[in-house]
Amino acid sequence: MAHQTATGNALHLVLFEREGGQLIGECNFTNIVRGPFQACHLGFSLAKVVEGKGLMRESLAVAIQYVFRNIGLHRIMANYRPENARSEHLLASLGFEKEGLARSYLKINGSWADHVLTSLVNPDDLADPASNSRML
Question: PROSITE patterns of this UniProt entry (predicted)?
Answer without folding.
Answer: GNAT
